[in-house]
Design a protein that fits this description.
Length: 245
């Protein structure tokens, strides 16, 4: 993709005679440097209502930065500056309005990837089979990375590390289930586990017009509500560091 964006389509470039060039990982407009970064990979993530632009950038100091922003961020110089400023690294953008329009045409002309964007993490069913989506990562049942679908970044709330862990063995699952069932009455534990499993199928249930209910955990002080959340629900989702009020 780096070559595609840096040498998008030589025939088209000659046709439009773009003033944009790349030197030392910076964009130049004619002989004026207007950024301290270049885009080396990009894809449009198209959701039902909104679309994101996922960019992988390389800075002048050879640092790699990944950003996700609304496609409308390129509408003006100020809107793009605002999105770039949200990153912790100093991404300089010094384009004028005219230079911005030329750079926008240059970058968008090199974007060839367009993938489906979804709001919630979980299991989705593609023509090739079921896949699991978590943030910008998607894997199939064999653990292979899938490019054609990912989560919209503005829909990512609490982040999970579920894909960073090894797949549990049959023995580990059996041991875990025994421990979970011994934690409380089966009726209570199984209701919680059923809700957890349904969360991974939320999008599929929505397509089947089934609304996923909220889970309400009630009980007296000291009855174990926080324990259930901290030791059962959050670990299953591989969510770490969440504060429990």
């Amino acid at each position: 993709m780096e070559n595609n964006l840096m040498n998008v389509n030589e025939t088209e470039k000659k046709k439009v005679r773009t003033p944009i060039t790349i030197r030392n990982s910076c964009y130049y407009h004619c002989d004026q440097r207007i950024t301290n970064f270049i885009v080396v990979d990009a894809k449009v993530v198209q959701g039902e209502e909104t679309a994101n632009l996922n960019l992988k950038m390389k800075t002048r100091s050879n640092e790699v930065v990944e950003l996700s922003m609304p496609t409308t961020a390129f509408a003006s110089v100020n809107s793009l500056k605002l999105e770039l400023s949200k990153n912790q690294m100093a991404l300089a953008y010094k384009a004028s309005k005219g230079q911005h329009e030329d750079l926008k045409a240059y970058i968008w002309g090199g974007i060839e990837k367009k993938v489906k964007g979804v709001k919630a993490s979980g299991i989705y069913f593609l023509k090739s089979g079921p896949v699991f989506v978590e943030g910008n990562n998607t894997v199939d049942k064999n653990g292979n990375h899938i490019e054609e679908i990912c989560q919209l970044q503005n829909s990512v709330g609490i982040r999970s590390s579920i894909l960073e862990h090894d797949e549990p063995t049959k023995e580990q699952l059996e041991s875990l289930l025994k421990a979970l069932l011994n934690h409380n009455e089966n009726g209570i534990t199984l209701s919680i586990l059923a809700w957890i499993c349904a969360c991974f199928l939320k999008s599929h249930l929505k397509e089947c017009t089934h609304k996923l209910p909220h889970l309400c955990i009630a009980g007296e002080a000291g009855s174990g509500k926080s324990t259930v959340l901290e030791q059962i629900i959050l670990p299953v989702f591989s969510i770490e560091g969440a504060k429990v009020a």
